[in-house]
Write a structure and sequence with these properties.
By secondary structure, this protein is mainly α. Helices cover 62% and strands 0% of the residues. The protein has one domain: Orthogonal Bundle (434 Repressor (Amino-terminal Domain)), CATH 1.10.260.40.
């Protein structure tokens, strides 16, 4: 299963899923699936949008252990 740190960094910033979705331009449903790992392989644009809002790099969120 695909593992990322979206939820970890979102919660560190005290953001709701809806706030992250609105700020990044990504649907709440899709973000929810990404966080749970039931969807994987997001586009570069999606990863960039999430990283910008969370003030992290793409590798920190999607590729680090």
């Amino acid at each position: 299963m695909y593992k990322n740190k979206i939820r970890k960094y979102r919660e560190e910033r005290k953001m709701t899923l809806k706030e992250l979705a609105n700020s990044s331009g990504i649907s709440v449903g899709y973000l929810c699936h990404l966080e749970k790992g039931s969807r994987d392989n997001p586009s570069k644009e999606v990863m960039e949008n999430i990283a910008i809002v969370l003030n992290k790099t793409i590798p920190e969120i999607f590729f680090s252990n």
